[in-house]
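Renewal narrative, Specific Aim 1. Our central claim is that a sequence can be written position by position from structural information alone. The example that follows is taken directly from our test logs and has not been curated for this report. It begins with the structure tokens describing the chain, in the order in which they were read.
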């Protein structure tokens, strides 16, 4: 599932090009950079690809979330709803920004349980962060409808699903603001890095200021002379990340296509096994196929299944601690529905490049283990 698998001469050339010009900073140095602004170019290409009016390159997906929350200028101390099953960064970003994280259960799509959002909304709720987990969304349009009906802001955490869509519309563009991650294990990578997208000019400006100490980035004025627009911090993307992003974005459609083919072959090879239930994916077309996930009937069977897979040298994805338990450690509470779903889950990561032998081995091992366990 990783852009790093397709690193090649194109990435090397782009990075060397930046190094030769010796300008690593995204702003200023206009003479030295010979009119070349890599982060800006990456943002322009990214917003075209995603279909948003604005895009802002940032230092990571975690910082994208923090900036997104700050850019909305919501009253501090209020509640922001997200889901129990998400990488810990979502919950950390809410806390770091001075809000109270409120967690919801997930459903069998591994995404936020919409009925539970209804239950968790209080007079103190100001925003919802639905997280498009493991390559696809749940019924994100329904989440948006609910949020709008209650006058709540939506920040889409799309860090795990760059390039995915729902009913033809790219994920990350459903809410008021969308967040992306390009860390080293993601479907496209800039080593570390992230992006924010929005259609709202004011939100974009607030994000732009916040991510760089409050700088307005005015043309024809040096940084030192600029007025501070608001409080902020440093979450800037640099030119090497921008250069890598341009190349990786060009490769993304092919990466997704390859992953979809690999996933389809594996799924075809195991779909007749009795006793496994595939993850619910409301729009399979929009899935970027980073994982193939199914559920067994009990926790015990799922644990045994994963143990036997390991014994046969096929590693299941590990998504329980940093994506669930850690969040509960921070927030507290009990999430029996999510726990049950996650306890019964078996998931494998789909690589971008897989040989027929690798695919056959995974199918054979899953079939063999299923015979022993189910
Ligand atoms: C759902 C989710 N949100 C946020 C992040 C944070 O992204 P980064 O590693 O770029 O900080 C991740 C990273 O794995 C993630 O999976």
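The sequence written for that structure reads:
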């Amino acid at each position: 599932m990783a852009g790093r698998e397709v690193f090649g001469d194109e990435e090397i050339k782009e990075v060397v090009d930046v190094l030769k010009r010796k300008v690593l900073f995204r702003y200023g140095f206009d003479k030295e950079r010979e009119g070349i602004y890599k982060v800006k170019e990456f943002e322009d290409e990214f917003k075209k690809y995603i279909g948003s009016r604005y895009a802002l390159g940032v230092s990571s997906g975690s910082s994208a979330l923090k900036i997104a929350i700050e850019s909305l200028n919501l009253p501090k101390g209020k509640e922001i709803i997200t889901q129990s099953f998400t990488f810990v960064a979502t919950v950390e970003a809410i806390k770091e920004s001075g809000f109270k994280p409120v967690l919801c259960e997930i459903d069998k799509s591994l995404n936020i349980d919409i009925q539970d959002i209804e239950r968790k909304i209080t007079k103190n709720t100001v925003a919802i962060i639905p997280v498009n987990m493991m390559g696809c969304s749940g019924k994100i349009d329904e989440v948006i409808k609910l949020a709008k009906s209650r006058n709540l802001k939506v920040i889409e955490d799309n860090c795990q699903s760059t390039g995915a869509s729902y009913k033809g519309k790219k994920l990350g563009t459903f809410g008021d603001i969308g967040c992306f991650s390009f860390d080293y294990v993601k479907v496209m990578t800039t080593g570390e890095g992230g992006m924010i997208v929005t259609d709202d000019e004011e939100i974009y400006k607030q994000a732009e200021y916040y991510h760089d100490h409050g700088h307005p980035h005015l043309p024809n004025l040096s940084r030192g002379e600029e007025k501070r627009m608001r409080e902020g911090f440093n979450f800037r993307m640099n030119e090497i990340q921008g250069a890598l992003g341009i190349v990786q974005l060009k490769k993304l459609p092919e990466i997704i296509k390859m992953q979809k083919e690999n996933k389809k072959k594996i799924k075809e090879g195991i779909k007749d096994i009795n006793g496994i239930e595939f993850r619910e994916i409301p729009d399979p077309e929009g899935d970027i196929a980073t994982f193939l996930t199914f559920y067994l009937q009990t926790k015990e069977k799922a644990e045994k299944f994963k143990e036997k897979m390991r014994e046969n040298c096929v590693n299941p994805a590990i998504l329980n601690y940093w994506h669930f338990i850690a969040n509960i450690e921070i927030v507290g509470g009990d999430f029996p529905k999510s726990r049950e779903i996650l306890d019964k889950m078996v998931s494998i990561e789909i690589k971008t490049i897989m040989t027929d032998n690798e695919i056959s081995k995974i199918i054979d091992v899953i079939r063999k283990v299923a015979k022993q366990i189910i």
